[in-house]
What we know:
single chain, binds (2S)-2-hydroxybutanedioic acid, disordered N terminus, alpha/beta
Amino acid sequence: LIGALSALALTTLASNAYAQCDDGEMVIKFSHVVAAKGHPKGDAATLLAERVNEEMNGTACMEVYPNSTLYDDDKVMEALLLGDVQLAAPSLAKFEAYTLKYRLFDLPFLFPTLDAVNDFTTSDAGKELLKATEDEGYTGLGYWSSGLKQFSAGKPLVEPNDASGLKFRVQTSDVAVAMIEAMGASAQKLAFNEVYGALQTGVVDGQENSWCNIYTQKFFEVQDGITETNHQLLAYLLVTSTEWLEGLEPEVRDQFLSITDAVTQEANADVADKEAACRQNILDAGGEIRELTPEQREEWVSTMKPVWEQFEGDIGADLINAAASNGS
Ligand code: LMR
């Protein structure tokens, strides 16, 4: 019985139907922190696993571990280098220990739309940035967008001033800290799987995230409402260990890379629709969403955008200009 139960637990842990690898197949483990379904990253990871398991059957087998069931975003970076997992997709905000260049993606109000993000990430400058973590032993395989971020708190936020004195959970990003402090609020870095509890118990008053994270993690249930600020990008680096990638047979590596490229394109094309669906799901579940007038939004922009200057030295003015020129 115990054997049967643990087999059941393992099957439930891995989110895709192909989790049972055959003898002789190389196992590719993909660990991430979000919902397995109805989320741009959860769905992209499943799509990738389905394609690898079908097209590389007999050679490779991918298992996906969603919802921080295997590692959180800090631990997963170490696990990649140790070979305990082969793929991860932490948000670009979580790479501060490996490169300061990705601070670019966290600059508030840099990208007006997800199309502008796509224009930049597929440009030469964007592709070059995939290499930013190479010296640390990682290879970036692609950018996966997740959405633009919205603020929520335990009280209504209409003007940035409303956030004054509140404490917000942020990712491990100094840009986010600076941005929150510019609002007269304080920031606390917390792992993603700690956010719901921290909001519920009042350890923090608010948070900022994409529609699909706010919906699938049920943050809206423990907040007064969500303010549609679209103030910052949430996007991921699909990342692997360079040692693992270089250790693959050339034809296996080529096939794997061509599948990851195709899935990256397909997943990014679908993000805006998935985000719109999550926004609607929040409304349908009784969540409160506050839209801003153009004048109100301008106040958020003028409060937060000055932080760009603080990080220009780490990122480079040329890169900021190249990213800012997309879609503006
Ligand atoms: C967060 O920590 O808020 C996000 O990076 C989680 C995620 O992976 O979307």
